[in-house]
Amino acid sequence: MLPLALSIGDPSGIGPEIILKAWLERRRHELPPFYLLGDPAFVSARARSLGLDVPIAETEPEQAVVGFATHLPISPLDNRLTDNPGHAETVNAAGVIEAVSRAVDDTMQMRSAAVVTAPIAKKPLYDAGFRYPGHTEFLGHLAVEITGAPAKPVMMLAGPELRTIPVTVHEPLATVPSTLTRELVEETARIAARDLRERFGIAAPRLAIAGLNPHAGEGGAMGTEDNDIIAPAIQALQAEGIDAFGPLPADTMFHARARQGYDAALCMYHDQALIPVKTVAFDETVNVTLGLPFIRTSPDHGTAFDIASKGIARADSMIAAIRLARELANNAGGVR
Ligand SMILES: NC(=O)C1=CN([C@@H]2O[C@H](COP(=O)(O)OP(=O)(O)OC[C@H]3O[C@@H](n4cnc5c(N)ncnc54)[C@H](O)[C@@H]3O)[C@@H](O)[C@H]2O)C=CC1
Ligand SMILES: NCC(=O)COP(=O)(O)O
User: Fold this and answer.
1) Which residues are annotated as a binding site for a divalent metal cation?
2) How much is the ipTM here?
3) Is the CB of 53 under 6 A from ligand 1?
4) What is the Cα–Cα distance from 71 to 65, expressed in whole angstroms?
5) Which atom of ligand 1 is nearest to the CA of 14?
6) Could you give all domains of the chain from N- to C-terminal order, each with its CATH number?
7) Is the pLDDT at 313 greater than 60, yes or no?
8) Which residues on adjacent β-strands are paired with residue 154?
9) pLDDT of 262-301, one tens digit each?
């Protein structure tokens, strides 16, 4: 069995802490072996300052499974990381990006089974010249760079009771309507249906498609995108045999009874998708990227700078992300 590759995320946030805590919880949660792409000196210092007794060892990915029971394996980054909890440092951008790239490379080279990313703050990366809105888009870029084949990454938030998929992802609200096209809705739904079938083992995924406007447009009186873009996309998907339905008024599609009627909800913008799923299960939900030639999961939360290095960060979502990555890798035919 291959280990999972974990990227350290923003060193100023809670990423390092929840990874250390996940390792300490490895037996209780029966976690599969993983290794961290990080700076060993930084990780040791953070563990000490948090009072967490985590032995670490510099390890090649190939050796990570062997020592996982006794220490946290770390595959060292070329870039050093600066320790300044709660304050994003642009100087750390190179190491943060290297960790993600190396985790992807290890996975594509079959040195690891899947990528699990700790949260990154976007702004310090942008300030350092990073051109991608977030992991999701960067992972799509890496996939294309490595394979030479087109890849369309699709974000899905997967919780115990609800899965949601934003069709537009890191898009300012003001430009959502002009970004939303029939093609984008269809492409996102096709990838979601395929990956829910092939990766999650759902034979005939039911996709509930949200409208964009109040009351899904109220027959065109409260906005035209629902009738002009979303409804024709749903008809095309249905004609292909995909069990898609809507456009549904978004305010009434997430309550407990409504959730029984679908396997995933396609939402038209970031907060339409992320507010319901984080409200229902903030600690257990996992961010999964669909549409890639490798598996990637992440906690649903961000860097939580307000509590960085205070010792109170919960590792539940990171633990759920590790467990889901292993499950998806197992579903991928046992190759990994
Ligand atoms: N996958 C990723 O890389 C993600 C990164 N982010 C980034 O994180 C940064 C901060 O984002 P926010 O909107 O403030 O969201 P956040 O999730 O970092 O924090 C929101 C609130 O939840 C609390 N919280 C979050 N995770 C927690 C945990 N594990 N245990 C206990 N409390 C927790 C925080 O203390 C804060 O009060 C942004 O720069 C954003 O870009 C946000 C979401 C995902
Ligand atoms: N709010 C979700 C989020 O920002 C995560 O994005 P990504 O970095 O996983 O693309």
Assistant:
1) 170, 215, 270
2) 0.98
3) no
4) 10
5) 29
6) 1-153+292-336 (3.40.718.10), 154-285 (3.40.718.10)
7) yes
8) 290
9) 999 999 999 999 999 999 999 999 999 999 999 999 999 9
